[in-house]
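User: Quick sanity check before I run a bigger batch. Here is a single chain. Can you write out its predicted 3D structure?
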Amino acid sequence: MATTADIKIGMCIEFNGKTMQIVDFQHVKPGKGPAFVRTKLKNLENGRTIDNTFTAGVAIEPVRVERRPYQYLYEDDMGCNFMHTETFEQIIINRDLIDNSDLMKEGQVVEVMFHTEKETVLSAELPPIIDMEVIYTEPGVKGDTASTNSLKPATVETGATIKVPLFIQTGEKIRVDTRTREYYERIK
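Assistant: Done. Predicted structure follows.
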């Protein structure tokens, strides 16, 4: 057992019978009354985020998780098919457990988080920055750049739509931040 003093961002705990990941926390010591820890918890089963306050020093139950590299193969009616990059074991993951799944390309390596005791998939994360090709975007119009941060929608090779600067044209390769779904930079 651990206590609230052991809380770290990214730590997984068992809370109300569900596996939760700590997204953010803040230790608060008010002028009067006991100290407490304000946390933001992400439910790894359905992706919902909740706020919870723990009294300082209360026991929490940490969950052992393991991150393994898997390569995305294809999607069928059962879900997304992945293959372990070292053992070649194949698994099927529901698209709901994958953050920003519409940015995922075939052959891409993702990090799959497993609950080590139950050996179940908790989530799958794409790399933070990925390279994509813009397959369609409206051409930028001269004189349309009055503000320095003007953005336009662009469709990338996976079919996802993201906002890009006006100078990006169809056929160019760009880098996309998968955590925020934002344009990162153009690849020369």
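The chain has a mean pLDDT of 88.

User: Great, the batch can go ahead then.
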